[in-house]
């Protein structure tokens, strides 16, 4: 809703152009296959994140940069994924954007469904979001405007370059 998938794809394209193998694990797509048996209840959300973390670890073990694009509302679940990827290979990107922006960028109409009560346990509406305490990257509004997906991807890319993650 904040543009996660768009940013993930832009980042993947840029990394690919630089010769890096990448794969994007998108939360919506995973819920149609691997995680189709899970609801949006807290325990199922935790299992969703756990499964994604395990798959991301397999990609990382194969030398592929895995970009996950999903809402992970609980710190304990994100911390569990971080523990799966030692040596600082887990980089948390927090898209710290106002709820109004997320709702305005909702192509699937999920916020409308949540506000009307058709989806229960929706992050930001009737379920909390626990912001990261020590995320590596925070993407925010700049001068009252939301950065473009390309600018957001470049912010992540800059971090990766500056911290030596893209060494040959």
Automatic annotation (TrEMBL):
It catalyses: adenosine 5'-phosphosulfate + ATP = 3'-phosphoadenylyl sulfate + ADP + H(+). The keyword Kinase applies. It comes from the Eukaryota. Pathway: Sulfur metabolism; hydrogen sulfide biosynthesis; sulfite from sulfate: step 2/3. GO terms for molecular function: adenylylsulfate kinase activity; ATP binding. CDD domains: APSK (cd02027). It is an enzyme of class 2 (transferase). Its EC number is 2.7.1.25. InterPro entries: APS (IPR002891), APS_kinase_dom (IPR059117), P-loop_NTPase (IPR027417). Keywords: ATP-binding, Kinase, Nucleotide-binding, Transferase. One of its GO terms (biological process) is sulfate assimilation. Residues 2-140 form the APS kinase domain. Pfam families: APS_kinase. Belongs to the APS kinase family. PANTHER family: ADENYLYL-SULFATE KINASE, BIFUNCTIONAL 3'-PHOSPHOADENOSINE 5'-PHOSPHOSULFATE SYNTHASE. Catalyzes the synthesis of activated sulfate. This is Adenylyl-sulfate kinase. The lineage of its organism: Eukaryota, Viridiplantae, Streptophyta, Embryophyta, Tracheophyta.
């Amino acid at each position: 809703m904040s543009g996660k998938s768009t940013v993930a794809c832009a980042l993947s394209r840029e990394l690919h152009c630089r010769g890096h193998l990448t794969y994007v694990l998108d939360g919506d797509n995973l819920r149609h296959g691997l995680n189709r048996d899970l609801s949006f209840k807290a325990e199922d959300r935790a299992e969703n994140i756990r499964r994604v973390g395990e798959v991301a670890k397999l990609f990382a073990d194969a030398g592929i940069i895995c970009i996950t694009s999903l809402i992970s509302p609980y710190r304990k679940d994100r911390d569990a994924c971080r523990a799966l990827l030692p040596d600082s290979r887990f980089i948390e990107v927090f898209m710290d954007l106002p709820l109004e922006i997320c709702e305005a960028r909702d192509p699937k109409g999920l916020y409308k469904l949540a506000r009307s009560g058709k989806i229960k346990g929706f992050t930001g509406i009737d379920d909390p979001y626990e912001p990261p305490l020590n995320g590596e990257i925070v993407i925010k509004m700049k001068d009252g405007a939301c950065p473009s997906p390309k600018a957001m991807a470049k912010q992540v890319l800059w971090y990766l370059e500056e911290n030596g993650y893209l060494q040959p």
